[in-house]
Design brief:
homodimer; 156 residues; alpha+beta; 35% helix; disordered N terminus; DNA-binding
Chain lengths: 156, 156
DNA sequence: TGTGAAAAATGGGGCGC
DNA sequence: GCGCCCCATTTTTCACA
């Protein structure tokens, strides 16, 4: 009836934990008092549950989200890269030092990796792309983001 | 010498604010006491600065980050979409209700939008893609993520 | 696990400089 | 804009059920 991996747990436990995670994903500074009211448990019960979620690695951390545009990083792009030097295929580690790269995924398809990058200007993008190609021995295909409707919506 | 937009500010102010933002981007629950020690100011000075960063919209919020895999969402993909019905071009709002879509960007290039989606399985991806195509009247091109080297690195 | 209460730390606001 | 004091709130831990 349920897809829980812990059949011994009380019926609503999973739902309570999901509610806590969803609430914290939207407001990482919600107080235990608020969370307790939300789920109808005592403050210490909520505290225990959240600590357990952190220890089990379901909650991996807490982040302040910053406005990239106001930080002067108004240009976002996706860069797909393909190795040109067939010897080396460790682009992620070669590129890790570039702060402009926010994400790096290995992907299936004609290209090997997709990067999400954030820079100040087209000029800065050009410099970054040259740096990427030279550092990782890759060819690049870049898709510039014009506007973002939503970003970083919580998975639950 | 500096690219600050507030020429009247003391020399190091921008750097202090950047340090605070960087610290909070990495640990959104860092206490003002910790932050104060880090930047060498008093707790209340730090408190003022962080409040101002929030009010100015440089810090847009705080989020708990969740382990999508442990939540059963182990398949990530990028979906590029192209309108097939040339009348309607409001895919973002038509698709906003789909929780599996984590990001939605309008992009330059042969396609119109790029979505980042997160689902439980290939089956779920197939269902989602059919839903996207039917809802937004678009064609889709999907790139499946095999592994993620890094994700959500702070911009500073 | 959950509850309740008590101790420790932090948050939030005002005042002088 | 910074530093310090005060008090409400929150976090954290404990014994008990």
């Amino acid at each position: 009836m349920s897809s829980s991996n812990s059949p011994a747990e009380p019926a609503g436990a999973v739902d309570v934990d999901r509610a806590l995670m969803a609430a914290l994903a939207r407001d990482g500074r919600a107080s235990y008092t608020e969370l307790a009211e939300m789920v109808g448990l005592s403050v210490s019960a909520v505290h225990q549950r959240v600590r357990r979620l952190e220890q089990r690695g379901l909650i991996t951390g807490y982040r302040a989200t910053l406005d990239a545009r106001q930080l002067g990083l108004s240009l976002t792009a996706f860069v797909s890269i393909t190795p040109s030097d067939t010897q080396t295929d460790d682009a992620p580690s070669l590129l890790a030092h570039l702060d402009a790269i926010e994400e790096c995924h290995a992907v299936a398809g004609v290209e090997s990796y997709i990067l999400k990058v954030r820079v100040a200007s087209p000029d800065a993008l050009e410099v970054l792309l040259k740096d990427i190609r030279a550092t990782a021995k890759v060819t690049t295909r870049t898709t510039v983001v014009l506007s973002t409707s939503y970003e970083a919506r919580p998975p639950i």
